[in-house]
Structure to design on (1141 residues):
């Protein structure tokens, strides 16, 4: 009774027949299109809190841009999509430091850059470089900020994270949530927390627990059944 | 020494006090008179006395005597406040208090818009009480004495106790308490019409000091009484209190302090806490030691049962513990952790055929439940109480005639304080029985009994004040009144824990409070405090004050969830987090969030004396149902809170080293050690013994540092990193109080023989350099430490004003802040504060460092072909105490593996 060895490729997410590479940083890379997508950067979240009296370290934007730069360097994409909530609030882009603005411009060089609008940043100004759009459809795949559950959709907004418990010990990490037909991406920003994939919000998107959490481990990705998470 | 030797010193106590003592059949004790003498000589003093010595009365006698003044003059008169908000209960009738002769009434400090005129009535023997109210109107009297206790229950209890002498001697003294439970209206009234004596906590003191009433309230202060000082000073609350004291000395330069403490190892350093420290010198308050306590009678349970190798439950001795409770009137059974308390209580209850009234008491139980137990205890209705350190301090329990300490005593002083809970009368011997739960604990109990007999103390040394607490204090100061940095720096250094504070640390802390203290100066416009043109730091907007007041304090608890017992569903609900269980249910108590996160729905654990099944988590409510299992699946939700003291550890090593001393040990333990000496080696006092041996398909390395579990865990983390680099392929480790066992796939014995693994290099103190830094970057314990600093310092808030969401929802993940800050500004003041905490707290790095230095050149290695007798206890912890390093990938990979199997299974059935 010899079962054929099944290999679950830990580092890919398939949507509507398209296979994307899941980057440990929380980005997705679509090789055929040379397209890199990241979601929920929440740039300037630190200064947004500072404005309300909580003086979080002002290094979140540079940390986030640094990780984004590394992901871009790894894949050298032709297109970059920032899948909404790229800035933490409506005025956040005005608080970008000149240095960070330059870092951003450098990342945008020699490639198409698409800012998808999110609920935190519904009205981005044109001077940030790139194009602003509500959603983008490429082949069978649609990129939008808030997930609707439609087939072929890659969205963000929910900041999925998964928790796994064993023998009284728990690990909680950001993850991609995907059932092969649609996917929700983890938040990329340095100060972004998460929403547990067992929350009702995910049930609305996936209907059942028959989806997989592609969990960002310390050194590699782990594909874990949503029903195994808690 | 006769305990009630009458020392007639009529000049120290007024006649009516002596008469009152006489009517009760008492006479003042020597130490009570000694404190009166110190007060007369205008000296601050530390009273060291065992429980039951009349310590608290001693602390208050100088105040009572002073305030009673000339009794004939204390004619009850109409309060000037008559008709004005007198709703303060029986003590609210204000009688004129006369300043003691020869001591002028404290000068009134200028009040905003109020002018500095003394009320004309102040001349001669006029009342030193308030004459009016309101901001712009003259007020003439603040507090006389401030009493500070670590427990609000204690403050309330003391207030009740003070009522007796005050009522019976008809003293014109008003006493009030102020705690978190005091109604807002009463707190406001206290600020306008302060009592003579206010009983409160360190947090409430901080709040009062941050109000603009502080100069009015405190400038008249004559005395501060600090109760249970030995317990207060070991934590950040002690730091906060010390800074509050520094403020008080500034506001009331003539204020004197009385500290009340159990016996400590270094009384001189504790006495420094009570007097302002001059720059560059160390001064201490006078020390008064109460003698006359009867020697306690302490013995180790001579069990007829087989002594377990490991574990902390002491189940083997249950019958014997039960018989002891039965044979005594009231017994306190102390254990070290809440889970042990839960387990022991449950076991005792199961065998309670006589229906003895036995109760459970620990800090996680619902407050109402705890009060019920305390009341029943005071009323003498209980035969036994199983409790944790929640009963280490405080409230008098009346007639406890036996203390049983189950498990390791951990420290000599701690044990003595617990023993003192029995028989709160100084002239009768306390009786205690120690019940070791395993063989190593027998050794620890043996040396602890010797230490008690010698009255050897091992309380920790005075803390170095932490910077996160300083940050909170700096903001509090600014909330009170604008300050000049130079002045505040001097003031802060008068507090003993901060005497050595560097100017750089102080300035960085002020910068942090102002605008975060970041290298990137972009938050200036969001600053919470700013320097005005005169150079004084002042609060920028009223919201800052509000946030400070909501979040004052240094007790940062793990997020706690409420546990509710509901009628059981199957417990196997797969419907997601909300499950299929009923809502509502009886509140059992609170539990740490991280414990619940480690559970899977359906797991069982012990809580509030029952085995319960985890059903669901909805917001901050954990729903559990009664499980009918005998044993819980998840055994523990709290490791030992206190590590084995360095002192007891040293004594255990000496005991091991001295074979002649083994005579005093039970036969089973002596045989165990003799066998160890025969097959391997018994570690010498200064040595570190390392054993390596194969077992099943793995290879083990066991070492015996005896430095406590926390230090061993840190060592385990660091050694596994090094073994990884040496290609010994370590898989995991487990630590207990005495030993550390690491296992892996590489044959360490062989590697050592071949010279590929050098033990001296493996244990080299340089592991505290890069390896430590690398580990700290990802250590969950370090992140917890940082979170505490972030909350105390006011970087993030855990309490918000009403309109916002629940705390659990708004809690910002400090782990993310830690990662970013560590990378971009590794020398930030908060990271410095967290590192200082890591030296002594959850990571116990300092102790590890001392050990590594001590054992250099003294490593003794034994290569064995099987596990040694001494290694058995720690080996048995494997699987009970899951510590697999901090790397999370393994755990995630394990869960992912299940998906692979599931997929494979699906394939099989499908084909």
């Amino acid at each position: 009774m010899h079962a054929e060895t099944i290999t679950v490729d830990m580092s890919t997410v398939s949507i509507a027949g398209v296979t994307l590479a899941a980057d440990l940083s929380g980005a997705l890379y679509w090789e055929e299109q040379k397209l890199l997508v990241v979601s929920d950067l929440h740039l300037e979240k630190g200064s947004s809190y500072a404005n309300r009296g909580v003086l979080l370290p002002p290094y979140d934007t540079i940390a986030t841009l640094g990780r984004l730069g590394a992901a871009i360097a790894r894949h050298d994409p032709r297109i970059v999509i920032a899948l909404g909530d790229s800035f933490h609030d409506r005025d956040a882009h005005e608080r970008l430091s000149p240095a960070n603005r330059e870092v951003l411009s450098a990342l945008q060089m020699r490639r198409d850059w698409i800012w998808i609008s999110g609920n935190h940043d519904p009205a981005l100004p044109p001077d940030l470089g790139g194009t602003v759009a509500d959603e983008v459809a490429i082949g069978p795949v649609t990129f939008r900020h808030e997930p609707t559950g439609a087939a072929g959709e890659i969205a963000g907004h929910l900041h999925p994270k998964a928790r796994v418990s064993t023998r009284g010990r728990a690990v909680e990490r950001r993850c991609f949530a995907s059932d092969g037909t649609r996917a929700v991406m983890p938040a990329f920003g340095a100060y972004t927390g998460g929403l547990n994939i067992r929350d009702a919000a995910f049930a609305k998107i996936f209907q059942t627990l028959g989806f997989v959490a592609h969990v960002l481990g310390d050194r590699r990705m782990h594909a874990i059944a949503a029903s195994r998470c808690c | 020494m006769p305990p009630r030797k009458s020392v007639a010193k009529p000049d120290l106590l007024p006649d009516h006090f002596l008469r009152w003592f006489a009517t009760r059949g008492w006479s003042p004790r020597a130490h009570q008179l000694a404190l009166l003498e110190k007060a007369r000589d205008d000296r601050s003093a530390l009273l060291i006395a065992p429980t039951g010595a009349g310590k608290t009365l001693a602390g208050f006698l100088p105040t009572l005597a002073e305030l009673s003044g000339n009794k004939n003059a204390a004619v009850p008169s109409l309060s000037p406040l008559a008709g004005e908000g007198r709703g303060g209960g029986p003590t609210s009738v204000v009688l004129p208090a006369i300043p003691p002769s020869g001591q002028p009434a404290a000068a009134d400090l200028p009040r905003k818009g109020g002018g500095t005129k003394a009320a004309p009535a102040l001349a001669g023997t006029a009342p030193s009480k308030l004459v009016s109210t309101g901001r712009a109107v003259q007020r003439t009297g603040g507090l006389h004495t401030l009493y500070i206790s670590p427990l609000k229950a204690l403050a309330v209890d003391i207030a009740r106790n003070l009522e007796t002498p005050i009522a019976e001697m008809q003293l014109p003294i008003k006493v009030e308490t102020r705690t978190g439970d005091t109604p807002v209206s009463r707190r406001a009234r206290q600020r306008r019409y302060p009592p003579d004596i206010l009983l409160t906590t360190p947090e409430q003191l901080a709040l009062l000091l941050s109000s603009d009433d502080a100069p009015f309230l405190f400038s008249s202060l004559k005395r501060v009484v600090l109760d249970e000082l030995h317990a207060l000073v070991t934590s950040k609350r002690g730091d906060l209190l010390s800074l509050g004291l520094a403020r008080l000395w500034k506001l009331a330069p003539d204020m004197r302090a009385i500290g009340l403490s159990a016996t400590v190892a270094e009384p001189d350093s504790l006495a420094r806490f009570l007097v302002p420290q001059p720059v560059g010198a160390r001064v201490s308050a006078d020390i008064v030691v109460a003698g006359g306590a009867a020697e306690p009678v302490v013995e180790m349970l001579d069990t007829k049962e087989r002594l377990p190798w490991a574990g902390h439950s002491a189940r083997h001795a249950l019958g014997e513990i039960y018989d002891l409770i039965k044979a005594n009137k009231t017994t306190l059974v102390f254990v070290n952790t809440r889970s042990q308390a839960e387990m022991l209580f449950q076991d005792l209850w199961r065998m309670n055929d006589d229906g003895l009234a036995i109760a459970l008491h620990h800090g996680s139980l619902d407050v109402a439940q705890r009060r019920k137990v305390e009341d029943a205890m005071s009323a003498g209705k209980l035969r036994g109480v199983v409790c944790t350190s929640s009963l280490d301090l405080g409230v008098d329990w009346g007639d406890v005639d036996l203390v049983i300490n189950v498990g390791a005593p951990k420290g000599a002083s701690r044990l003595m304080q617990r023993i003192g809970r029995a028989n709160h009368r100084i002239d009768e011997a306390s009786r205690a029985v120690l019940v070791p739960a395993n063989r190593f604990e027998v050794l620890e109990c043996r040396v602890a009994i010797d230490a008690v007999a010698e009255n050897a103390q091992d309380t920790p040394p005075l803390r170095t004040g932490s910077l996160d607490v300083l940050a909170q204090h700096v903001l509090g100061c600014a909330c009170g009144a604008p300050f000049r940095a130079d002045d505040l720096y001097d003031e802060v250094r008068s507090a003993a824990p901060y005497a050595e504070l560097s100017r750089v640390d102080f300035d960085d802390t002020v910068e942090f409070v102002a605008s975060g203290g970041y290298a990137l100066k972009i938050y200036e416009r969001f600053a919470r405090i700013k320097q005005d043109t005169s150079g004084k730091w002042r609060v920028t907007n009223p919201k800052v004050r509000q946030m400070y007041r909501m979040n004052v304090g240094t007790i940062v608890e793990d997020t706690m969830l409420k546990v509710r017992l509901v009628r059981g569903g199957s417990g196997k609900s797969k419907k997601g987090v909300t499950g299929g269980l009923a809502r509502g249910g009886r509140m059992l108590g609170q539990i740490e969030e991280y414990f619940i996160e480690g559970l899977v729905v359906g797991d069982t654990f012990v809580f509030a004396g029952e085995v319960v099944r985890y059903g669901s988590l909805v917001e901050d409510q954990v729903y559990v149902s009664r499980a009918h299992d005998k044993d819980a699946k998840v055994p523990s939700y709290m490791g030992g809170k206190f590590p084995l003291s360095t002192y007891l550890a040293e004594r255990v090593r000496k005991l091991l080293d001295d074979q002649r001393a083994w005579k005093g040990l039970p036969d089973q333990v002596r045989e165990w050690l003799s066998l160890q000496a025969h097959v391997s080696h018994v570690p010498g006092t200064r040595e570190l013994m390392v054993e390596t041996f194969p077992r099943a398909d793995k290879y083990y390395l066991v070492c015996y540092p005896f430095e406590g579990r926390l230090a061993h865990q840190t060592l385990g983390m660091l050694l596994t990193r090094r073994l990884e680099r040496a290609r010994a392929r370590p898989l995991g480790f487990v630590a207990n109080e005495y030993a550390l066992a690491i296992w892996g796939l590489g044959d360490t014995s062989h590697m050592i023989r071949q010279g590929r693994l050098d033990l001296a290099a493996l244990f080299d103190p340089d592991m505290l350099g890069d390896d430590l830094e690398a580990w700290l970057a990802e250590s969950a314990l370090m992140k917890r430490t940082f979170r505490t600093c972030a909350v105390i310092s006011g970087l993030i808030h855990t309490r918000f004003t009403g309109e916002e969401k629940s705390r659990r929802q708004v809690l910002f993940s400090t782990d993310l802040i830690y990662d970013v800050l560590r990378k971009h500004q590794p020398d930030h003041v908060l990271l410095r504060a967290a590192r200082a905490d890591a030296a002594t707290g959850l990571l116990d790095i300092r102790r590890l460092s001392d050990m590594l230095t001590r054992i250099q050149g003294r490593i003794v290695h034994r290569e064995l072909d099987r596990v040694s007798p001494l290694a058995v206890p720690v080996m048995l912890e494997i699987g009970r105490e899951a510590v697999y390093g901090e790397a999370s990938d393994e755990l995630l990979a394990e869960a992912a593996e299940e998906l692979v199997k599931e997929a494979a299974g699906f394939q099989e059935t499908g084909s």
About this structure: Residues 889-910 of chain B form the longest helix (22 residues).
